[in-house]
Amino acid sequence: MIFGKLRNLFRASRQEHDANDELRFHLEKEIEKNIAAGLSPDEARRRALVEFGGVQQTRETLREVHHGRFFESLAQDSRYAWRMLRKSPAFTIIAVVTLALGIGANTAIFSLIDAVIFRSLPIADPQSLLVFQWESRKGPGNMSYRNFGECDESHDGSGASAHGCSLSLPFFKQVQAQSSIFSHVAAYTGAGQLDMSGNGTARMVKGEFVTGDYFQTLGVRAHLGRLINPGDDSTSAQAAAVLDHSFWQTEFGGSESAIGKTIRLNGIPFTIIGVTEPRFDALTLSNKYDMIVPMAQRPVVVPNWKPRDDQADHWWLVMIGRLKPGVAVNQAEAGVSLLFRNSVESVGKPLFKPDSDPKIKLAQASQVLGGSQKGTLQPLYVMMLCVGAVLLIACANIAGLLLARSASRQREIAVRLALGAKRSRIILQVLTESVMLAFAGGALGILIAVWGARALMAMVSAGSISPPIFTPQLDWRVLGFTAAISLLTGILFGLAPALRGSDVNLTSSLKTVAGSGTAVFEGKQRRFSAGGMLVAVQMALAIVVLVTAGLLVRTLNNLKSLNPGFDTQNVLLFGIDPRLAGYKGQQIDNLFFELQEKFSAIPGVTSATYSWYPFLSGGLWNTGFHRPGTAPPSKQEMESGAAEKNQVESDVYPVGPKFFSTWGIPLQSGRDFTPSDFAVAASNDADKPSSNPTPVIVNQEFAHKYFPGKNPLGQIFGEQEPTGIGDVKAPGYLIVGVVANSKYNSLRREITPCFYQPNVGGEAFFDLRTGTDPLSLVPTIKNIVDQQSHDLAVFRISTETEAIDRQVFTEKMTARLSSLFGLLALLLACLGLYGLLSYEVTRRTREIGIRMAVGAQSHNVVGLVLMKAVGLIAAGAVAGIAVAVGVTRFLASFLYGVKAGDPVTLLAVAALLVLVALAACYIPARRATKVDPLVALRYE
Amino acid sequence: MGNQIELLQGTLDLLILKTLALEPMHGWGIAQRIQQISQDVLQVGQGSLYPALHRLEQRGWIGSEWSTSDNNRRAKFYSLTRTGKNQLEKELGEWERLSAAIALVLEQS
Fold first, then answer.
1. ipTM surpassing 0.90, yes or no?
2. Whether the model pTM is above 0.80
3. Which chain B residues have any C-beta within 8 angstroms of a chain A C-beta?
């Protein structure tokens, strides 16, 4: 029946029409009857009308029958509310704009969170795609592990267990051979930067290797041409490449002639066979690949590929699959785990510590393939907190304004109550008004949200190398959120005034103070008035936001002013990969030496060097070996796992000549690398290492930890470690120097033991210390490189300062945004305080006049006004600090160098609030002192 | 005008349903019929008639249709639905029980 009533609302006018017709017919029949009974037409009409009675009443009743009382009164309330809001346009506009900002900001942040969490994979049937995850109590060691950020990894087993997605090629092949469990199974891995030529100027593209069944497993279709199939995934097949749709649009102009074209990847010719469908952008947010090629081409394309890369102790691919119908997940997991353990054991050296219980879990791809989802979400949650607090403050503010307004409408409400209106009706009417305001604010807020979300995404993309590719959208969840939050907001800030406004002592309100025109609200005097409480709440919330902002700003400062152990100013960074131009082995090292000398000779360059990865760019390489001073593990010890107790780790950093002098890292003892050191390192990098230990330089932490109290120079470590190539043992490392500690892959990571070895045989990033602006030397650099060989390309050009800025980008963004919101919150809270005090002074003008007339001084009057204010500020500050301490605990993982309950920040924020609030009191206080007793008393 | 006996709403509903059990009618016709059969004792004014008719229609016990009346004017004709017929049976039964019970009590004196 409710739906009938709802439906009737829409048919209202037609029903009114029909009802009128019906009643008119009845009246006419009555008149006819009277005429037939012998009356004159006029008399007949008169008599009929008298008998008819109140038509209007009937119409009302009929309306009620159809619409029910609730909607009738709702419509009435809405019309009334609309009229009231139109009467005071200034208030309405201010309120709507404030609400629009608050609701809009919340909606913007929510739409970003929604886009990240609810992003569904752009493939067919995303729910049933599974990802293979290895899981064990402690992470694997003794092997080569690479991951490309496809899923969250945890290797140290802190917490529940260690897990990750990278697995080995032999393991994949075994699973693939098993046809009873999976209907489809495929693997993929990142190919890094590929040098693409044959389509205009050579450029670097982001490549991906996939196995033959990849696209079928995902259920992705081709937009043009065809996609890779199992037939392409063999070395005897023609080398095929598939283009990503948006890459095809930008690089090949979206032209159909791209199909069949031959391009060269790292010098190897590939034929383009197709383009993926437009909606397939990436599986993981941060890994969008331009060029997709078959896995079988990997040994050919990847420079410096060695056969041992495809063994069971090199884990570098991600496996996905779909189960055969009827196969349960835990069944499949058991079967696959067995294969996994076999694969691990086949290596011949233990990859897992005993008791690790390694197994495979088949997880839902949509949940696991998030990449750095946690990293993206956390700052958004912090923003949500700040924006939510600002909205609450806005609500409290408007509630205060409404309270003041309702005080002036007391008389009208008192009259209505006296005439028999129910209190609930009045409350409902006030709430209707506030909800209308809120929805108006919400509607405007959606526009603000759209603009805000886009602006935020633009800011984020500007500062990130591989920006997340989610696009916030106005889907039903976001709109639903906006509607819900508007409704809640309206009820929230309308409730206090509604309850207060209708709680009227009739007699005192109806008494007017003669001559004043309006009734003075003399309702119940409370110690802490509702208006005061609202202001105190606003102050408390403002403190919470400001404390958050303060902590984030301090974190940012701590990170930026951190001494990483080397000089970060004026350093130019760029990468060169000679392997892509066909250089091999010793040629590469010779090239690097030559280039280093040529770069050093450029006027304006103080010093030049190179390294495997630029400082502070997040790259990391570490390795394990037996603790120096203990014996190398025997084969039995390796297999039984007893060798674990002596296993230790260190970071490894391959560097070129003059590295430490260029970066300003002091050499504390020993010497820097010489050319002969590089030769030794090169000979150990070949398939069969020599018997000379590689010369290395260790940092202080390494010396302190592994050679305490001894002189580390001349010591050898890591010798006789098995290499996994038959019985060949590693020659180990010889310490030739010790340098001071420094941070080298990320600012936040603690100093760990690290040894530097000569960089041989691969790509390198050059680091040039310049006297002037580093970027001005780029053309000269490019010239020199081009003269060396036309096929060489320079990539990833930036300065060290930029690299560090990128590291702290998230911190900078959150610090800036939260400061903005904090100041906004403070402003709103103080406006609320100002409004309240102004109103108080106006209200008590008469009282102040009397006091002054009987001899009160200015300072007494000011004290009167301020007493209340100070009480509110104090209450708000104390409450705010208490809440801030509790809430900021959730920030702890975000902070650096400052604790969540940091007293200095708390005190500073409280002091700021008190100062600004007192400033807000100034004008009302002054106004109070300017009250002329005579004028005030005349209003008596 | 005479003494107007106050009709309870439920009773009026019963009368309307019974009237419509014979044939479909418009509102005025229903009022006339009730008046005639009750020998002018029960005179139903439009203020009670039409709200009752519209409520009955909402409950689904009667249906309505716009048609032309005997003098070619547009009028809304009501008719009994099947559920209305069942409801009529039920209420008639209740009415008989109720009036029998009241009569028993009144005989005692």
1. no
2. no
3. 26-28, 31-32, 45-47, 50-51, 54-55, 58, 66, 69, 73-76
